[in-house]
Amino acid sequence: MSEDQGVWGASLRQERLDAADDGIDVDPFGDADRLREDQAKKNFAKVGSARPTTLLYTYGPGAVIDLPHFTIMPTGLDDWERIWRRRDAAPATIHAPRLLEAVQIMLGHQVSELRRFPWQPPRPGIRRDGDDLGVPARVFPQWLRCTGCDLLAPLSRFVNDYRNTHPFRPDQAIFEHRDCPGRLSRTSTARGRKGAAKRKGNLRSPCVPARYLLACPLGHLDEFPYDWWVHEGAHCTKAPKLELEMRDTSQRGVTAIITCRACGASRPMSQAQGEEGRRRLPRCRGRHPHLGVFDPQGCQAEPRVMLIGASNLWFATTQSIIDMPRLDPAEVTRDRVAALGRALGEDRALVKENAETARMLLKRGDAEAVRLLELSDAELIDLLRRLAVPTESDDDRLKRREEWNPVDLLVPEWNYLQQEPSGERHEDPASGLVVSPRKRGALPGGIDRVLAVDRLRKVNAILGFTRIDDFDRIDDTGARLVHLVRGSRPTWVPATEDRGEGIFLQFDEKAVSDWEARVLASPLWVAHRKAHRRNVERRFSETAKQINPDERFVPPRYWLIHTLAHALIREMAMSSGYGAASISERIYAWPATEQRRAAAAGMLLTTTASDSDGTLGGLVALSEPDRLAQVVDAALTGMMRCSSDPVCARRVPQDPEDFLHGAACHCCTMVSETSCERANRFLDRRFVVPLAGDYAVGGTTFASADLAFFRDVRLA
Fold it and tell me: Could you say which of 157, 187, 207 is where a domain stops?
C-alpha cells in the first residue's frame, strides 16, 4: 500500500439505538489482536481502503460510505487517538502555519496540529492478516434488508452471519441471512415459511442496508424508525420480537412498503416524503452516529427523510492554502513564535527568558525550530517574551471569527504572486515554491501577466461538516458545523499535503474595473443578484434569514475569471496529459476594500498529487508564450458555441428561479466538482465572450455581446 492511501476499519458488533448504549466502542485493532491471538484466518476488522483526499472531501467522519455489500461511517477523531497509542511513532504532522491560524479561528486555539491521515506501510514477509488498520468506522445504517426474503431487521439479527475471511480481500465482507426462506406470497403463513426453508435447505441470502435515514439541517443523522412508522407510533401487540418486511413496488410514486409480518400492519414510505410526510415524522433526537452520542440539549429542527446515497447527506467543511513565503513581518514573527512554542513544549515555563536554554531545546525541534538557532540572543529573547503573552480569549476569537473572510487566506498568496521573481527560475527553500516568469506573447488584451509555477505545495484541512445544505452557502459556523470530536474542542484536525504545478494568469486591473462598471449597470447583473437573494432565502439554515445576501454575492470580476478558468481547464485537459478532473482552480478576484486588501484579478490553475514527487510538468509546459496563446484562443472560441444553444446562451434566472449561473451548462462551461471551488456556480459566458443573439429580462431584450470582456473574439 502506498503512502497516499488510508485504510478503513470497522468493528462489527451489535449497536443498540438508545442513547445510553449508542457510545459503543469501535475497536478494529482490538478485533485484529484477538484474531491474531486465536490464530484465526478471518479478517473481521478491515473493510476497505481510500485515499486521504477522498476521506477529506467525500467520505470523511460522519459520511456514509457505500461498500460492495454494506455501508459504514468513519467515526470521530476521539476513536482515532487509539491508533496513535497503538503505534510506536508519534503522529505525522504537516507544517502549515497560515492554515493552522485559520483553523484556530474557526475551532479554537486548542488546535495545535494538522495531522496526516493514519496509514501503515506493509510489513515485509508473508503474512496472513493483511496490513495494519487505519481509520476506525462503524456499520451505519444498522437496519439491513435480506435480498432473499425482504426481511427488515437490525444488525443484531445478522451479526453472527458476517463473513470476511480473506485477509487481502476486505471488499468481500458481507452480512448474510441464514436459513432464508426466499420470497413467498403475501398470503403465506408462518408454517408455509418454515416448510419453504426446509425445502430449500440452508439458504444464505446477502443483506443490504435499508436505504432510508432521518437528517436535519443542524447536522444530526439517525436511523429511520421503521417499527414506529409501520405501527404509527405504537408497537406490535402480537409479537415481542420485531419481524418487519420491506418490499419494493412498481406503483408510481411509491418506492417501498413496510409491513409487520406479525400483525399485518403496512405503511408506504411515500407517506414520509414531502411537506405532508414531514408532519408525520417523529422529532429529531439530535443523534451524531460518528461520535456515538446524542445532543444533550436535544434538537428542535425538523427532520426529513434522506436516502443513503443522497448527495446532500454530507458536505465537507475544508480550508486549503498554497504554501508561499510570508511577506508581512508580523506574520513571520507569529510563525517563529509558534515554532518556538512547539519546540519548548511543557518546558516553556522553565525556560522563561533564558536564551541559552532555549537554544538547547530548539535543537530537538522540527526544521522550523532549528532555523531559529540563526537568530541573535536579543531576537530569541523577544520571541520568548511574545510566547509568554496569553493567547486571546475565546470571546475575542469568536468576534474575530465573525469578521473573518475566507478571502483572507488568499490575500497573502496574491501578494506574493505580484512579486517579480528574481531570475528565470526562483525557488523558495522554506516552502518549496518554484516560479518562473513568462512573456505574454500573443495573449488577448486584458491578460497582463503570466507566471509558471513549476512546483508548489497545497495543504488541505477538514474542520467538520454539514448536512442538507453546503457550508459555503450560509456561513453559520456556530450553528450548523458538525464537529469531529465529542465536546467540539479538537486538539488536532486531519490534513493532507499535495504537491504539483500550475499556471498563474493576472488580468489588467484597469480593464477589469472598466468592464465591471459596465456589468454592474446591466439588467443581467440585476437578475443574477435577485436570483442569489432568492437562493439564500430558501436555504434550510435558519441563520440565512439573518444575513444580507448581497454581502455574500461575488463581484462581476469573479464571474469573469471563474468562467474563463473553466474554459481553460477544459481546453488544457486536451493538451496537458492531465484529465480535466485533476486540474483545479484558485480564483483571486475581489475589488479594493477599506481594509488592507487591494484589488485582485487573477487565477491559478493547478494540478497536484499526494505523492512526494508531485506532477510531471505537463501543465507548466503550456505556459510557454506560443502554446498558452493557442490554448487561450481555443478556449475563448469554444465558449462562443454550445450544443445547447440557443437555450444555454439565452438563460437568465427569472422569478421564482434561483440558480446561480447564466449562459453556462455541462456542454460548454461546467467542470468536475473536484476542479471547481464554487460547485459550478457563478458562471456566465456572456461576461467573457460576445455571444450571438439577445437575452431577455422583464420582457425587454438586450444584446449579449455588449457585456463581453474579450470583445474581439471571432469564430474560427
Answer: 207
